Amino acid sequence: MRLAGTRSMGALPEAEAGRRNMWLLIQLRWIAVGGQLVTIAIVEWVMEIRLPLALLLPVPILLAVINFLSLPLLRRRVGVSNGELTAALLLDIAALAWQLQQSGGLANPFTWLFLLQVVIGATLLRPWSSWAMAGAVGIALGVLSINPVPLDLRESHRADPLALYLQGSLVCFALIAVLLVLFVTRINRNLRESDAALASIRQQAAEENHVVRMGLLASGAAHELGTPLSTLSVILGDWQRIPRIAEDPEFADDIVDMQAEVARCKAIVGGILMSAGEARGEAPRVTTMRTFLDGIVADWQAMRRPGTIHYQDRFGEDMAIVSDPALKQVIGNIIDNATEVSPAWTEITASRQQDSLVFEIADRGPGFSRGMLESFGQPYRSSKGRPGGGLGLFLLVNVARKLGGDAEARNREEGGALVRLTLPLDVIAYTGEAPR
Fold first, then answer.
1. What does the H/E/C string look like for 180-214?
2. What is the pLDDT of residues 100-133, one digit of tens each?
């Protein structure tokens, strides 16, 4: 399941919605161009009703040229305004009015196509523009009543012009029905996409708000833990100097182990405070990608039995980066999860794909359930069944999103799970002189 971390999604703004609607109008205009050409061909050569082709044919050709010119412009545009949509619909109304004026005026049964323009305007445009469309249609109908070019009917058609009108009305009704179905279906699809985008940004906003609250809680806890950890370190140092403890090798080794764990806790606290922008220890520093990754892996290899963590460095040519404490912490969380469910074997792979770092952590544990994969990265969704679980993956997804990358998880065919982190290198790259 791929998480949308490449860019932040938001509810469709009016400009983006206008761009989608303009695409829809262009598609409908292609249908109108094809319909006009087919209708002209049938009337002229099948029904043998003479039409002023020199006046009618330039209109669909002009509409086709406008569509061809609009496509590259629309691809480069971020959005389309309500005024531009209004102008596009007015152009279509004017084209239809010209065609009808040259082929019978109000007596042409295809006059009902103006209703489609009114419906489209009422659906896509602002209220004032919708009324402007209705007014434009009214003006067009008034113009059609003034000196229209009558149709040159054959004798058989002149005997019963009402039958010809009814046939044309039936065709017009069928055409309007088909176009309305296409139009409404596409509008519904746009609305569903808009709703999905809105739901996504709301979910992302809720998650980011949760991250902020977690960050405040973690920062406060880190401040509170700093003092007792320092006290423990001092007490353990004093114990080491007690002769009775120093003479007991087993007890002395326990003291060393406890000091190492206290030092690790202090490092974690320092990392949390650095991520929150509060210096406690070293600030983020310039290093190299290989040094950064090797350091993370070496820390975990030192805490596990030899041979249980396998590291494959496929990154290629090294590069200077600015180390990110938050990134180091979330990678450590994922390694911790993998080694917990698969203590005998964990594989870590770092590679470079184009301009991105791809960091993969594979294990031979039970893998992810379907529900976990569907909700991957959401807080408190954990397969461990303990309160507060699932925050490691949640933080991974949000840190990746913050850095412009993404994260995904899947189950391996040979058993176990794989978590992949992809980050663009230009986000963490150091452009100055590389450290020696």
1. HHHHHHHHHHHHHHHHHHHHHHHHHHHHHHHHHHH
2. 888 888 888 888 888 888 888 888 888 898 899 9
